[in-house]
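so ive been stuck on this for like two days lol. basically i have the seq below and the ligand is S-adenosylmethionine, smiles is in there too. i just want the complex predicted, nothing fancy, no docking runs or whatever. if the output looks off dont worry ill sanity check it later, just need somthing to start from for the group meeting slides
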Amino acid sequence: MNKNESKNLDKWGYKEDNKKLSERIDVHKRFSEKDIDAWMLKIIRIKGNEKILDIGCGDGKQILAFGKKLNLDGRIIGCDISKNLLDKAKKIAKKNKINASFLLHDINEPFRFKDKEFDFILAAFSIYYAKYPEKLILEIKRLLKKGGRLFIVGPTPNNTKDFWKFHSKIINKKIPQISLRRRARIHDIFIPLIKKHFRNIKIDIFKNTIHFPNFNEVLKYHSASLLFVESIKHEKEKKIFLNKMKKEIEKNIKKKGVFDIKKEVYGILAYK
Ligand SMILES: C[S@@+](CC[C@H](N)C(=O)[O-])C[C@H]1O[C@@H](n2cnc3c(N)ncnc32)[C@H](O)[C@@H]1O
């Protein structure tokens, strides 16, 4: 990350690592019980000619899933703070002939778009990185047409709760406050703000289980998470943690055949 990219990241900010995001997505694809894209699409019901803004598009997971629903009159614009991830998203969009464009943008700054440009704005697993939640919600409202909709996806306070307990027990310390507060941010901060500034709010909860077949897959997934980065500070601590985790997970897999991590995310649909 260069200096310009990092200057706006505070305690809530996070510059997603290209490889780590792909690794988490890949694990979901291979071992999740359910498909989250199908769940989102069922709620959102994209019309072919819509103009969509994808906030924190990452490497283009939703650009691909949603962009495929658009016809030649529709367009999806992906924005992200990470140039690497945008480059990857661009390639995916081009390969799949999605009518998309991309913008390197920090959600803590105003967007350069005119008022009422979009039919639909999506923020999937990204809004909780914002420094100024109300400013961002108002900015989203400004960009939406009258009757346009916002869809926010992100963790409920119960997301991966059992696994976090397991992590805490193994490392023998409490989960860092910043991780807990980030996980609760949609519930504590964003839902009240959406209720204040939007109408016809509908909140769905998507429950999914990832069935890990072996320790290495859990390790790949967990070491690509913010909790891992925020709670394990030293190499020595990491080594002890990994040895203990391996032992516990392998015991569990021997008994049950798999090691499960339970996910729980909100899908919040709201209208301007
Ligand atoms: C967990 S990823 C989600 C990516 C994608 N929506 C998905 O679900 O696969 C979070 C994304 O938010 C982006 N992000 C974090 N802070 C940001 C900021 N201040 N401005 C713009 N994007 C940001 C990260 O770079 C990352 O791509």
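The pocket of S-adenosylmethionine is lined by residues 13-16, 21, 25, 56-58, 61-62, 80-82, 85, 105-108, 124-126, 129 (CB under 6 Å). The longest helix spans residues 235-256.
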